[in-house]
Structure formats: C-alpha cells, structure tokens
Design goal:
single chain; alpha/beta; 259 residues; five-stranded parallel beta sheet; Rossmann fold
C-alpha cells in the first residue's frame, strides 16, 4: 500500500485544468475548418472532388459550403486546394444544438450549443447520467468517449457519469452510423430512458452516417431513428470537444458565436 501511495504522489496532479484554462492540444490536431471565399478560385472545385464524404458543396452562386456533420477532418480538401480557401484551425469548439448549424460558409457564423431549457437544467444541471450506445461504430468515437472517464479529463468532477442501464439514464450518447441491425435496439434503448430525456450524437457517423452514408445496411445517423439534441462533429471528436459540448449543454460555458 505504501508503494502505491508513493507512486501516486510521484505522479502528481494529472487532471487537465479545462475549462478553467484552455487545453493544450497536440501539434497535429485539426479543429474547426475556416473558409475564405476570397481565396477560392472560380471553377476550381478541387476540394469538392477530394472530399470522401461529399461534405463540400458549392451553392447556386458558387459559394463554398462545408458540412461539419459529414466532415472526417482528413485534410484532403486542404491538401487539394491550391489557394488555401480551406484550412483547419486549432479551435476545438464546434458543438451545436441544431443539425443545420453545422453547415459552414464564408460569411456564416457558427453558433455553439446553448444550454438546456431552464426546466431541464433544474433536473440535470448538477447530476447527469448517460447511457452510451455504439450503433455500429468503428470504435474510434467510442474510445475517445471512454477517455473522458480517465483521470486526465475526469468527467465525474462535473457530475456527469455513464450508466449501464437506460432506465438509470437521463439521456443517450450515440456513436456509429446506426446499422440496420442496431436500429431496433437503439429505438428500444431510447424508449427505456425515462422522460424528460435528450440525445447526443457523437462523430460524423452518428450525425450523418459519415463514410457509410447511403450504404444499404446503414440508416444514416442517429437522427433517422431518434430525435437528437446535441451534435458533436469529428472523426472522432477530440475529448475536449465532447467535454466542451457537454458543459455548454449544462450551462457551464458561456454562449459563443464563432465568425
């Protein structure tokens, strides 16, 4: 026992100071994409051709649009663009309450997730229990969600915990594109959560189907089966992005609009 105590003292304090301080992200981290229409060359569309999930489109006037809900953050568009019209920033904040808010353009602002309604905050503001459902995911998003339970992120310090049964949960956290084999299971899990409840979609697959969108064995994301209240984009989302979104949902982060 003494050896364990000494080892723990030697390790020191490992929990990150977020949200009190900004997180330290790795050099290779790719965050919120930035679009500069002024740099976009007419008729180029190399970024659109390079995107593996059709996240990039051009509006009627030729304006570039990027769907964060489909984006895999693979940087293929950034690499293909000869003029730097698209670049990935280091901004981890990109969680929204509406699916439509994830469609980015040059002049569009990104309104980050607002807090739950006052009635819901009174119920869940101090203690939140989530049932995680892997609806056919590759285990990427699942692994990053699991990391939130480690000493580094310590999700429990915010009163948020994962539970084994939907009957003990306040809401669902869904990963994966929702395969046809998981459709009924997801619906039954949702129905088993007592009201009031909410749903969080984590990752491109759970939001839009990701690279599996349109596949005959995939449903195209959680919203095709259950209503979704929080969208966390990424492939997979960084744990800080997910944590930031959860804290915003609980009213513990200020309302922010990113231009």
């Amino acid at each position: 026992m003494l050896k364990e105590l000494l080892a723990r003292l030697h390790q020191g304090h490992r929990t990150i100071p977020f949200p009190r301080e900004e997180p330290v992200l790795p050099e290779r981290y790719r965050g919120l994409p930035a679009i500069s229409a002024a740099n976009c060359r007419d008729g180029c569309r190399e970024c659109e051709k390079a995107c593996p999930t059709e996240a990039i489109t051009f509006a009627g006037g030729g304006d570039l649009r990027l769907d964060l809900g489909r984006c895999l953050f693979c940087s293929a568009c950034e690499d293909a663009c000869p003029t730097g019209a698209i670049r990935f920033t280091r901004d981890y904040r990109m969680v929204t309450r509406e699916r439509a808010a994830l469609l980015l353009g040059d002049a569009k602002t990104l309104e980050l997730a607002r807090a739950l309604e006052e009635r819901m905050l009174r119920v869940f503001g101090r203690s939140l229990k989530l049932r995680q459902v892997s609806a056919g995911g590759c285990n990427g998003c699942e692994a990053e969600v699991s990391v939130l339970n480690t000493v580094v992120f310590d999700l429990g310090r915010f009163g948020v915990q994962f539970v084994a049964s939907p009957r003990h949960a306040d809401g669902l956290l869904i990963t994966g594109p929702v395969t046809k084999n998981m459709r009924l299971a997801l619906r039954k899990t949702y129905d088993a959560v007592p009201a009031p409840k909410f749903v969080i979609a984590v990752g491109a697959c759970a939001i839009s189907g990701g690279p599996y969108a349109g596949h005959q064995e995939a449903c195209g994301g959680a919203e095709s089966v259950v209503p979704v209240d929080l969208f966390i984009p990424g492939c997979p989302p960084h744990p800080v992005t997910t944590l930031d979104g959860l804290l915003r949902l609980l009213g513990r982060r200020g309302r922010t609009v990113i231009r």
